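Cross-check.
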Amino acid sequence: MHNSRRMLVWLKRIALALLLIVVLVFALIGLLTVTRGTPVEYVLAKGDPRGPPATDDPLFRRTIELNTGVDLEAGNAVQVLENGVGTYPLLWQDIRTCRQTVTVQMYFAKPGAVADTMGAVLRECAKRGVRVLLLLDGFGAQSLTKEWRASLTAAGVEVAYLRQLRWYTLHMATERSHARVIVVDGRVAYTGGFGLADYWLGSGHKPDEWRETNVRFEGPAVAELQAAFAVAWAEATGELLTGDAFYPPVSFDTAGTVRAGLFHAVPSTGSTPAERFYALTIAGARKTLYITNAYFVPDDDFRNLLKAAAKRGVDVRILTTGPNTDVRSTLWAGQWRYPELLRAGVRIYEYQPANMHAKTLSADGVWGSVGSMNFDNRSLAFNNETTLLIYDRRIVAGMDTMFLNDLKASKEMTLAEVRRWPWWRRARSAMADMLERLL
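Predicted model, tokenized:
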């Protein structure tokens, strides 16, 4: 009897130990999952003494297409839009012209004038019999009121949430839908860094305003943005959208002359299309590389790529946010990288009047991008992102002008100044850097 009890006690202990081991293993798997990075270290051009293809080389375009899955097609009309004042009036006008479908996907939304106007415009369309679909991220839009949503559904707008935070979705908690999608009748599209919040009202020159860059386009790339929405809508609702109402069978030959493609980045393990886009662009730059990004936290490998570009004579300039940032820990982590990059010849600027929230890139006056994708591990490994890739000298020249104008309102960081930072500021940046995989 006594031996039986001892055996039972030992069996319970063994079972408890095994359970603890299983819990620890799953906890480790979870930790590794939410802190995963991306593996590309360098770009190799085997057998080509010139190195990776330059941005103005036709091989560069083909390489981008193969490594990102984007079709860079001609026939697009593209307008790069600056700030809310350059975006919302045109956006409301386009949505009001809807006849069949309006699809909207937003990451960030909160109560205010912008959300109210969007709600009113969508209700107008739905009441006319237009099918209106609104998809919101379960984290970024959680502050919207039930009354706001109810007013939309009562008018016939179909509202869904993607990846809402529940105990059974914790494994996806870090994988957010950071995409911005607006498509009207499958013909006119918008993406960028904007959202449904009053931060984006104004011209981006006051502390309570956000400096933003968005893009409006027509042509073949519209269907690619619509497809990005369809993927997310299917995940949220189980309904996969097809048909002429969403993908109209029309010729876009007269829409424009710009070669462009919509890049829809999705979460994955291992090498991601997002990191390959950045790596190929940095390696392909020969004269200029202008990066505007609100959340600039490049890992070791991307810092090496940026330094290599500067050392081979490329004018590498980084424009990021400054004292008006909305995420201080990300700014601090980015500042930890300044000395290393500055020593290599990379020039870094912090925007002063407002929170710089734009996500743009241009290289050599011919290759550019405007979208939602940040230069951090979250965008490279975890988020759904939408970015228009543009291969056109006229459009990119305009982007370069916008970039250089922003520099006039920015502070250039110098190695001498960074070295004078007090110890507590450097310590703060070092601690923020420890969280780089989560930022």
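The domain at 51-60+263-438 is CATH 3.30.870.10 (Endonuclease; Chain A). The chain has a mean pLDDT of 91. Passed to J.P. for a second look.
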